[in-house]
Every structure is written in C-alpha cells, then in structure tokens.
Amino acid sequence: MSERIYLFDTTLRDGAQTQGVDFSVADKVAIAQALDQIGIDYIEGGWPGANPTDDSFFDKPPKLSKAKLVAFGMTRRPGRSAENDPGLAPLLNSQAHAMCLVGKSWDYHVDVALEIEREENVRMISDSIALAAARKEEAMYDAEHFFDGYKANKEFALSCVKAAYEAGARWVVLCDTNGGTLPHEVEAIVREVTEHIPGDRLGIHAHNDTENAVANSLAAIRAGARQVQGTINGLGERCGNANMISLIPTLMLKMGFDTGIAPEKLQEVTGLSRLLDERLNRVPNRHQPYVGAAAFTHKGGLHVSAVAKDPKTYEHIDPALVGNKRHVVVSDQAGRSNVVAQLAESGIELDDAAMRRLLDDVKQREFQGYAYDGAEASFELLAHHAKGDVPDYFDISRFRVMDERRHNAVGKLITESEATVQVEVQGRTVMRVAMGNGPVNALDTALREAVVEIYPDLAGMQLVDYKVRILPPPKGTTGTDAVTRVTIESEDDDGFRWSTVGISANIIDASVIALYDAYAYKLMRDGVR
C-alpha cells in the first residue's frame, strides 16, 4: 500500500489575501463544498473573529462529508492565559473540527516584533496548542518563518516546533513564509527536523516568491513531511502559495502517494481549478500545468506527428487522468499533420479537394496575419466553408462607429460610442443603431439587435474577452500601416467558450470580422441552417 499524504487547502484564508480577491460567504461555501467533494483532508475556512465574512461562514459552516473544517488564528498573547485570550475564544467556540495556530519561530521576530523573552514565546505556543488539542479534534501549529528562523538560530526554531509537538499538536507545519528558501535547503532542513519530530506529524506550507512553492513542497515530502498545504491555482498574497492543483496529480501520478483522493476524483481537478476562476470572474490560465487549456496543446508539426504515433512522446501523462484533453492547433509553425489532427479533434471530415482548399486558405490567411492558435472556432468555420456545409447566415453590408467625448448633464466628462450597422439577412435589409461603453461593445449590441429576431440563439451569448495585437507593418511601409489582429472570446448560457479572430488594417473592421465569426460559430454549433 502506498504511503499517505494529507492535503490541507488554505484557499479560503491564504487565497483571500490575494490582491483583487474578495470572497463572499457564498463563494467560500461553494469552494469548500467542491474541495470536500474531490477528497481534500483539511479545509481552512478562515479566521473567526477577524472579519464579518469569516464570522458568518463559521456561524453556519457547510456540511462536509470527508474534510475537516479548520479555524485559523494566533497563539495566545503575551501575559495572558490561553483560556482568557480574546483572540483564541472565537476559534475555540467555532464549529470548526480543528484549529491551526500560527506562532513565531524566528528569534529575530520574537526579539524585535513581539519584544518578549524567547522562553515566553515557547510557552505561548505550548499553552495554546494544549488548549486547542483539549477542545478540538485536532490542533496544528504553523511555524511562521521557520526556515529563516532555523538558518538564523537552529536551537530556538527547534524549541518552538518541539513545544507544539509535545503539547499535542497533530501537525507541526513548517512555513516558508516569505517564499525565499530553495528546494535543496527545504529538503535538508526538513530531514534534520524529522530527527526531532516524526515525519508523519510534519507539514509544509510554502509561498511562491521564487517560483519554487510546488518544488519546495515536494522536497519537504521527500524529506519525510506528510502533510502539504496549498491553494487552488496557487492563489495567495504576493506571488501566491503552493498550487494544490499541481501538487495533487504530481503526488499521485509521479510519486505514487495515496492522497485520499480516488483516481476517478482526480479527473475533477480541472473542474475545480476552473470553478475558482469562475467564482472570481477570472479568465483561466491557459498554460497552467495539468489543467490549462494549453497544457496538452501541440503546435509544432513535428510534435503533432510524434504525438499521433505515441502520445507519451510529448505528453507526460494522459490528459484524461486530470480531466483535461489534448488539443492540436493550427499555426504558422504547423504542417498538414496539424490541420489533419485539428480536423479529427473537431470531428470534421474533408475529401482531398476540400483539404487542398483548406490548406491553401490557411496558408494565405496566415501570410496576411491570421493566427488560429487560440482561435479554434474561426478555424472550424474555415474548414466547414471548404467543405461547403455551412451557410452565410447574414451579410454585414455596412457599419459606422462614432465616438463622442463630452460633458454630461451633471458636468462629468464621458466618452460614448454609437454604432450603426446594416445587414442583409434572409432577403431582408435590417439597420440598427446602439450605444455602448466602447466601439466594439456598441457594434456587438447593434449587430445582435439586427439579427436576433431571425436567430434567437444569439441572445444567449456574450463576449467575455477581447484582445488586440498590432502586427509589424509590411516592408517598405510606415508603422501606421501595421495590421491589427483582434481575438474575441465568447461564452453561451451553458458556459461553453469559443474564440474567433479577425485581421485588418483597421481595428474596428478586424473586430467586426471576429464578431461575425463568433455569431456564425454559435449558430453552426447549435445546428441552425
């Protein structure tokens, strides 16, 4: 039987310290339930008594089937008993199954920040952990700045963690609080600590300030630690924390540990990663290991040919193991093999004549500046046009956009966009005018209003991302002759997303081309004829 590693997720506390992140109670409940569903051992819900959101969350915590809910806080204050400390009371009175208490383990902080005797700091740790262990199912100690403290004063740092262990801590967690320790240092120090505290009582909490949080966590596991802390997608203060989404499959698939997560549940890590992004209204990181949309995406023609023969050539695991899938993109680095593979992935079959037309079209368009890497919807439309089985749903015969910068009725300076579009749709000429908070928004609104009566499916889609890239101008021309590439990402009511691309010397024209493809792809995917 493989050895057990215990997973401790700190997204609801550490993640909430991320700049721009503000979890609601509903967010925290949904994330906690998702973590419990996948099989996480411990979920740190926050700090009772620190803010109204955490108080509300702990007042009515979600029902968890497997995970233990953990309340986070500090060891008792100097000069107080643990029983009478106002900071510990909310944790002790909460409905959390366990408590995780942070305390100093670096003599510098004790001397300068707390300004107390070092022996008092050790007593604070011991007293607090003993009370937590008596009142809760489990008590844990987060040894803040442990690795810096160990390098500065080994004896004192060890006295802090040994005090927690001897007071009854189920887990003594070694924290690389400023993220500055490197993997070889972590492994050596943790191995030395195991001579004093058993590895099955040690945890690791790593920050990502040198891009080593995952590596440091794995190094600690190699040295004997058996609990690992991290956040979904590496969320956290400054540069973030160890990414639990990378740690879980690495521990299971690469190192052979039992994490308590069933193999079939491992397939849910991609969904868990995207759930957090959805709650935060963030675009998922396409290049995130294991779960990103580009994690198993192949672009170079030689790579595609090799993957077609043996996926292990360029894929370190089967994407399906983590709920992801293989993608082959069409780009200026691709050959016929990429196009064939992309067509196969999309379920499109072309005869030889249609294939030649498509290859010629792709080559010509990429020369103009089109890029179908990341705009798969536009590529599928191109393939269907080569096949001749997708209609021209409507024609944009003319459009006009005006921007006006003025003072409104209350004297505030504003900029408004107004778009006029004329389309030919099913033998009718339709003109619409719309206002927007930008030219593309105004165009999208006017165009949607012009065709939604004929194509009601379009009412259920929206634009969620808009990117512009200015391409180098042709030789012999000036910089103002540069070509503009616009990529638009759209989403429907079911959460399905697709990307389209447009090219023109005019940014508005390029946007209209990408908009048309977005609408056409939605209609084609819905089977509209």
Question: What does this entry show, briefly?
Answer:
Residues 5-267 form the Pyruvate carboxyltransferase domain. The chain has 529 residues and is of the alpha/beta class.
Oligomer: single chain
Kindly state the number of beta strands: 16
Output the number of helix runs.
18
- Taking strands numbered 1, 2, ... along the chain, how are they ordered across the largest sheet? 1-2-3-4-5-6-7-8
- CATH class identity of the largest domain: Alpha Beta
C-alpha Rg, in Å?
28 Å
What is the molecular shape? elongated
What does this structure look like?
The structure is a single chain. The mean pLDDT is 91. Helix 13 crosses helix 14. 38% of the residues lie in helices and 21% in strands. The protein has 18 helices and 16 strands. With 529 residues, it is an alpha/beta fold. It folds into three domains: 256 residues, TIM Barrel (Alpha-Beta Barrel), CATH 3.20.20; 91 residues, no CATH class; 61 residues, Double Stranded RNA Binding Domain (2-Layer Sandwich), CATH 3.30.160. The chain is elongated and about 85 Å long. It has an eight-stranded parallel barrel with strand order 1-2-3-4-5-6-7-8, surrounded by eight helices. A three-stranded antiparallel beta sheet has the order 11-12-13, with helices on one face. The longest helix has 19 residues. It starts with 5 loop residues before the first strand and ends with a helix.
